[in-house]
C-alpha cells in the first residue's frame, strides 16, 4: 500500500476516534431518555453544539498536523532512506543516507552508513582479488585489440547468425568509404556490434562459403578457408576471405583465435545499406559439428575493396583488345605491301613509292596507338611495387630526421605545401634522398641542405638544395648507377632503380641568381584522400585503442529479431539512446530540431564508437534565448542537411532497436509531427528514463537528468549537446536496469507498463 493511502486512512481513523465516542454517547443518552428529558437534553445541547463542534474541528486539525509531521518524519523519511539504501546496494555504492528527522531515524541512518562503509571495504577487497584474477584475460584482450588496430586490412568476426562480434578500425573506414546517401552522416555503412553483416554483404554468398568451409573441415583440410568476390548494394566490389572460428568441446564459451585469421592476400589485389538486424544464416545451426569434437561457432572475414583494381584491369583488357584489333589490320596492310614489293622487284617507281607510303602510314598509326596505350596505363605498370599514398611533407620530415641523425648534416625547410600527397615507396625514397646528401657531404663538403616541395599537374617535385659548389651532370649519372650505401647501411638498389620504380625522374638544376644548385625528384602525385572527421565527443569518451569487440555475443542468438519481443528481458535487447536539441519547447507551434545525437547499447554495453551525431538546418531562425543553453548558432546550422535527410538516416541507425530518451514524449512529438510529410514512422517501443526514475524512486522530489545521474554516481560531461545528453542518458539507463530487476521488472513489457502508471506519463506536448 502506498504511503499516501496509508496517510489518508490514518486521518480518517483519527477523525472517527475524535468524533465517534462523543456522537455515540450523545445518541445513546438521547435514546434512553423520556420525551421531557429529550426536550431538556436538546435545549441543553443545541446552544452548546457550535462550540463543541468548533473544539472538535480544532482538535481534529491539530491531530492531523501532528499526524502529518509524524508521517513525514517516520514514514516518508524511512521510505526515502529505503530508496537511498537500494542505491547504495546497487547503482551507487558511495552514496550515503543523509541523517535527518527525529533522533531514532538519524540513528538508523548513521547505522546504515556504517554498514555501507563496512560493505564497501569488503567489496573493495573482493574486487581487488577479481582484478588480479582477470589480469591475464585482460592482457590477452589488449593484445587482440592491439593486433586488430595494427592490421592493414579490414577484419570482421561474426557468429553463425551473421551478427558482428568484432571489427577493427580498418573495416570501419572501409565501410564508411562504401557508404552513399544519408547513411554516411552516421559514420558510414552501418557496421556495429550486434548488427548483421548481411546488411552489407550478400547473405547467399556468405552462407555458401561457410558451407564449403564446413565440408573442407569434415575432409580434414589443413587450410579450411574460402575466398569470394561480392558486390555491395552501392555497386562496390569486395574481395573477402573467410576462415572459421572453431570451438573444441561441447562446453565453454566460444572465442575468436588469432589463428583463425586468414593469410594476407598479395599486394595490389584488391554501403549505402539499410541496416537489418541479425538473422540466422539459412540452414545453419548456432554451432556446427565438423568432425571430432570441433564446432564452428562463427567466422572471420578479411575484406578488401577491389573496385578500383577491377576497373583498371577492365580498362587494360579493353585497351589490349582495341590494340590487338586495330593493329591486326595495320599489320595485314604492311605485310601485303612488303610481299608485293618483294614479289615485284621491277615495279615502277611511282607504284613502289605508293606501297612505301602505305607501310610508313600504317607503322605510324601503330606507333601512335602504342604510345597512347602506354601513356594511359603508365601508372598501372608501376603497381607491381608496393607504392602507397603518403603526405609529401611527412616524407621530407622523415628524410630530414634521418640525414641529421646519420650524417649530422643540418637541414632547413623551404616552402612546403602541406596538402601535397605522393604515391611512393617511402622507404626507398628516403634512402635515395639520404644517399644524395651523403655524396654531397663526402665529395663537396656541403655544410647545410634545404628541402623544398612543389607540384605541377600530376607530379610532385622534391628538391634537395645546397649553396656554393656545383655538380656536373656526369657526376650525377655516376651516382645514379651506384648502390645506395650510406655508412654501414648497404642497399642493392641504385638511385636509378628508385626513380624508375616510381616512373619518375631526377634532374640537376642550377639557380645562378641565388648561387644555388639542387637535385629535383619528379614523383607521381596521389589523389588527396578525404580528411577523416574527428568526432570530439567520440575522442573524449574513447579508449586509447578504439577497437570494437564483444565475444559474449557468440553465445547470444536472435537477440535482435525481425520484431522486438515485448516479453524479452531488458538485458537481452539492443537500444538506441538519443536526444535532440531544438529551437524551442513548443513542437506543435512550429519549433524545429537543430541537432540529433544517439549512441547504441548492445549486450549491456554503451558503444561510444557507434554514434549518430548531426546538426540540422531547421529552416527557421534560432531563438536567441536558446543559444546560450545548447551553444548552437545560426552559422553552425546554415548549410547543414535538412530534417528530411537527417531523420531517415536516424531511422536507419536505430532500426529494430528499442528507443531510449529522457523525457521521450518531447522528442517523439517532433518525430510524430513529421510522419506525414517525411513518411518516416518510429514504431519501435520507447523507454523514458524520466518515467523509469519515477518508478524506481517515487519519493524523490526531482527527476531531472542531472539529479538522477548524481544519485546514480554518474559524472555528467557534455550536457546540452544532443550526443552528450545521449551518453549521459545511456549511462543512467544501464544503471537503472538492475534497479528495475530488484523491483521485479525484468522484461520490456513490464518496464513499459510500470512507466505508464507514473504521474509524468500524463505529460503531453
Would you give an account of this structure?
- The radius of gyration is 40 Å and the shape is elongated.
- It starts with a helix and ends in a 9-residue tail after the last helix.
- It is built from 21 helices and 19 strands.
- About 8% of the residues have low confidence.
- β1 and β2 form a beta hairpin.
- It folds into five domains: 132 residues, no CATH class; 155 residues, Beta-Lactamase, CATH 3.30.450.20; 68 residues, Helix Hairpins, CATH 1.10.287; 137 residues, Histidine kinase-like ATPase, C-terminal domain (Heat Shock Protein 90, 2-Layer Sandwich), CATH 3.30.565.10; 200 residues, 2-Layer Sandwich (Nucleotidyltransferase, domain 5).
- The protein has 765 residues and is of the alpha+beta class.
Question: What is this structure's SSE topology?
Answer:
Blueprint lengths: L2 H30 L2 H55 L13 H48 L3 E6 L4 E4 L1 H10 L24 H16 L7 E6 L5 E12 L39 E4 L2 E12 L1 H37 L5 H28 L11 E4 H16 L3 E3 L7 E4 L1 H19 L4 E8 L2 E9 L5 H8 L14 H7 L3 E7 L4 E9 L11 H6 L6 E2 L25 E8 L10 E10 L2 E11 L11 H4 L3 H4 L5 H11 L4 E4 L2 H10 L1 H4 L7 E3 H8 L8 H7 L10 H21 L5 H9 L9
Parallel strand pairs: 8-10, 15-18, 18-19
Antiparallel strand pairs: 1-2, 1-6, 2-14, 3-4, 4-6, 5-6, 7-9, 10-11, 11-13, 12-13, 15-16, 16-17
Helix pairs in contact: 1-2, 2-3, 6-7, 8-9, 18-20, 18-21
Amino acid at each position: 500500500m502506498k504511503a499516501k493511502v496509508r496517510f489518508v486512512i490514518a486521518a480518517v481513523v483519527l477523525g472517527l476516534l475524535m468524533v465517534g465516542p462523543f456522537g455515540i454517547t450523545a445518541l445513546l443518552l438521547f435514546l434512553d431518555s423520556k420525551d421531557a428529558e429529550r426536550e431538556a437534553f436538546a435545549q441543553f445541547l443545541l446552544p452548546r453544539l457550535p462550540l463543541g463542534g468548533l473544539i472538535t474541528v480544532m482538535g481534529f486539525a491539530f491531530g492531523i498536523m501532528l499526524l502529518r509531521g509524524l508521517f513525514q518524519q517516520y514514514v516518508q523519511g524511512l521510505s526515502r532512506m529505503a530508496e537511498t539504501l537500494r542505491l547504495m546496494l546497487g547503482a551507487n555504492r558511495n552514496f550515503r543516507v543523509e541523517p535527518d528527522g527525529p533522533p531514532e531515524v538519524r540513528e538508523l541512518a548513521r547505522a546504515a552508513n556504517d554498514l555501507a562503509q563496512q560493505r564497501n571495504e569488503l567489496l573493495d577487497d573482493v574486487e581487488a582479488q577479481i582484478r588480479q584474477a582477470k589480469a591475464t584475460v585482460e592482457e590477452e584482450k589488449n593484445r587482440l585489440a592491439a593486433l586488430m588496430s595494427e592490421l592493414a586490412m579490414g577484419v570482421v568476426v561474426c557468429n553463425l547468425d551473421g551478427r558482428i562480434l568484432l571489427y577493427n578500425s580498418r573495416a570501419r573506414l572501409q565501410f564508411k568509404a562504401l557508404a552513399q546517401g544519408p547513411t554516411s552522416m552516421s559514420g558510414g555503412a552501418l557496421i556495429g556490434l550486434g548488427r548483421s553483416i548481411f546488411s552489407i554483404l550478400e547473405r547467399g554468398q556468405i552462407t555458401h562459403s561457410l558451407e564449403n568451409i564446413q565440408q573442407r573441415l569434415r575432409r580434414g583440410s589443413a587450410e579450411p578457408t574460402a575466398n569470394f568476390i561480392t558486390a555491395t548494394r552501392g555497386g562496390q566490389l569486395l574481395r573477402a576471405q573467410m576462415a572459421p572460428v572453431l570451438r573444441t568441446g561441447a562446453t565453454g564459451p566460444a572465442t575468436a583465435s588469432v589463428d583463425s585469421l586468414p593469410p594476407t592476400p598479395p599486394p595490389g589485389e584488391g554501403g549505402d545499406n539499410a541496416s537489418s538486424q541479425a538473422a540466422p544464416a539459412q540452414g545453419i545451426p548456432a554451432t556446427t559439428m565438423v568432425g571430432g569434437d570441433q564446432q564452428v561457432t562463427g567466422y572471420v572475414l578479411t575484406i578488401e575493396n577491389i573496385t578500383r583494381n577491377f576497373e583498371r584491369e577492365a580498362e587494360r583488357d579493353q585497351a589490349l583488345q582495341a590494340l590487338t584489333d586495330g593493329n591486326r589490320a595495320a599489320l595485314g596492310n604492311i605485310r601485303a605491301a612488303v610481299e608485293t614489293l618483294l614479289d615485284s622487284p621491277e615495279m615502277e617507281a611511282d607504284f613502289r613509292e605508293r606501297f612505301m607510303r602505305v607501310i610508313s602510314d600504317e607503322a605510324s598509326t601503330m606507333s601512335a596507338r602504342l604510345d597512347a596505350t602506354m601513356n594511359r596505363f603508365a601508372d598501372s605498370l608501376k603497381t607491381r611495387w608496393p607504392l602507397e599514398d603518403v603526405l609529401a611533407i611527412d616524407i621530407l620530415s622523415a628524410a630530414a630526421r634521418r640525414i641529421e641523425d646519420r650524417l649530422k648534416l643540418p637541414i632547413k625547410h623551404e616552402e612546403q605545401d602541406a596538402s601535397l600527397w605522393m604515391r611512393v615507396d617511402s622507404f626507398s625514397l628516403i634512402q635515395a634522398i639520404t644517399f644524395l646528401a651523403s655524396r654531397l657531404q663526402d665529395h663537396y663538403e656541403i655544410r647545410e641542405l634545404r628541402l623544398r616541395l612543389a607540384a605541377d599537374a600530376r607530379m610532385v617535385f622534391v628538391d634537395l638544395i645546397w649553396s656554393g659548389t656545383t655538380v656536373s651532370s656526369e657526376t650525377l649519372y655516376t651516382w645514379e648507377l651506384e648502390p645506395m650505401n650510406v655508412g654501414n647501411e648497404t642497399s642493392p638498389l641504385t638511385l636509378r632503380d628508385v626513380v624508375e620504380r616510381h616512373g619518375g625522374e631526377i634532374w640537376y638544376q642550377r639557380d645562378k641568381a641565388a648561387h644555388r644548385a639542387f637535385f629535383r625528384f619528379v614523383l607521381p602525385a596521389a589523389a588527396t584522400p578525404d580528411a577523416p572527421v574527428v568526432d570530439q565527443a567520440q575522442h573524449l569518451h574513447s579508449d586509447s585503442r578504439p577497437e570494437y569487440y564483444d565475444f559474449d555475443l557468440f553465445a547470444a542468438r536472435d537477440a535482435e529479431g525481425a520484431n522486438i519481443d515485448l516479453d524479452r528481458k531488458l538485458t537481452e535487447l539492443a537500444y538506441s539512446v538519443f536526444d535532440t536539441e531544438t529551437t524551442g519547447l513548443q513542437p506543435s507551434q512550429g519549433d524545429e530540431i537543430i541537432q540529433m545525437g544517439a549512441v547504441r547499447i548492445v549486450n549491456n554495453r554503451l558503444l561510444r564508437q557507434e554514434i549518430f551525431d548531426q546538426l540540422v538546418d531547421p529552416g527557421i531562425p534560432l531563438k536567441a534565448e536558446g543559444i546560450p543553453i545548447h551553444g548552437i548558432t545560426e552559422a553552425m546550422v546554415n548549410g547543414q542537411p535538412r530534417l528530411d535527410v537527417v531523420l531517415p538516416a536516424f531511422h536507419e541507425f536505430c532500426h529494430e532497436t528499442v528507443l531510449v530518451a529522457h523525457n521521450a514524449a518531447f522528442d517523439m512529438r517532433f518525430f510524430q509531427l513529421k510522419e506525414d510529410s517525411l513518411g518516416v514512422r518510429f514504431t519501435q517501443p520507447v523507454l523514458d528514463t524520466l518515467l523509469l526514475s519515477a518508478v524506481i524512486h517515487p519519493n524523490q522530489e526531482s527527476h531531472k537528468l542531472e539529479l538522477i545521474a548524481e544519485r546514480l554516481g554518474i559524472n555528467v560531461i557534455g550536457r546540452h549537446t544532443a550526443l552528450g545528453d545521449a551518453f549521459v542518458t545511456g549511462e543512467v539507463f544501464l544503471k537503472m536496469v538492475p534497479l528495475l530487476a530488484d523491483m521485479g521488472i525484468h522484461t520490456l513489457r513490464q518496464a513499459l507498463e510500470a512507466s505508464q502508471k507514473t504521474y509524468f506519463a500524463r505529460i503531453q506536448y
